[in-house]
Amino acid sequence: KMYRTVKATSGRQIFQPLHTLRNAEKELLPGFHQYEWQPALKNVSSSWDVGIIDGLSGWTSSVDDVPADTISRRFRYDVALVSAVKDLEEDIMEGLRERGLEDSACTSGFTVVVKESCDGMGDVSEKHGSGPPVPEKAVRFSFTIMSINIRLDDEEDAVTIFQEQKPNSELSCRPLSLMFVDESDHETLTAILGPVVAERKAMLESRLILSIGGMQRSFRFLFRGTGYDEKMVREMEGLEASGSTYVCTLCDSTRPEASKNMVLHSITRNHGENLERYEIWRTNPFSESADELRDRVKGVSAKPFMETQPTLDALHCDI
């Protein structure tokens, strides 16, 4: 199935000697295309050709050699996004043509909207055989390019030049990181996804300069964390688990209140406030008992480490 898609996106016949195939594959992997960020990304390695990173212990440039005790492998986020945008090169040019835009005039003003997803993959342990001992659970972090818009200097409104037709298909969803970790293991998740968050934050403050259609063009990225389920949102926001008395990730309602009052149910706090509440929990400025403190912070528990986008949470939808 993957080879069908490789052939479809690259137009190449894949049945070739193995070394030719490896080289063709490497062109399709992140790390192949040259690009630059303006300004340069803060806290991110400056070598642009890094392919895959050992999730916990730093950089390796090779695609092939994986030490047996690796618990996570990932692409560098910016390198993976470059590869994803480059894959859409024909669609971008086609979109400009369809909108009647002069492609030589459209070198900046591109905005790429990225949907992020992260979820546990359940039990992946080997049932037989003698592979290396690995944790039984795995988590995958992936992203999908949802749309690309362009705003021209003299125009008010942005024009959409690419829209993903099948945003939930596995063909448009690009894995960024695979980790052998249980999604409830907050510390390990923090260790692996912390650098991903740092890279994403750096990209928000910069512009990608990439050659599309033979011209250097500049892209900015918007990230939407809409692919997380409720369990993962709570994990990332540092909230009590789903069995908590406090039903929602973004309001103070308790279960009994929510069941009595379906109408006046609304979002009453944001991610920043969740962080502030964590600080109250940690410092206990009013020297309260555990129960009083818990009542004050209403559902915040451990340290939030990954701010998702302020979208409607799963339980507001249920209610």
Automatic annotation (TrEMBL):
Query: Which BP terms in the Gene Ontology apply to this protein?
Result: adaptive immune response; B cell differentiation; chromatin organization; T cell differentiation in thymus; V(D)J recombination
Residue ranges constituting the V(D)J recombination-activating protein 1 pre-RNase H domain according to the UniProt record: 36-108
- Gene Ontology terms for molecular function: double-stranded DNA endonuclease activity; histone binding; protein homodimerization activity; sequence-specific DNA binding; ubiquitin protein ligase activity; zinc ion binding
GO cellular component term, pick one = DNA recombinase complex
Matches recorded under Pfam families: RAG1_DNA-bd (PF26024), RAG1_pre-RNase_H (PF26025), RAG1_RNase_H (PF26100), RAG1_ZnC2 (PF26101)
Protein origin, superkingdom: Eukaryota
Tell me where in this chain the V(D)J recombination-activating protein 1 ZnC2 domain is found: 246-308
Start and end residues of each V(D)J recombination-activating protein 1 DNA-binding domain? 1-34
Ranges of residues in domain V(D)J recombination-activating protein 1 RNase H: 112-244
- Protein name, entry field: Recombination activating protein 1
Please report the organism this UniProt entry assigns to the protein: Barbatula barbatula (Stone loach)
Gene name as annotated = RAG1
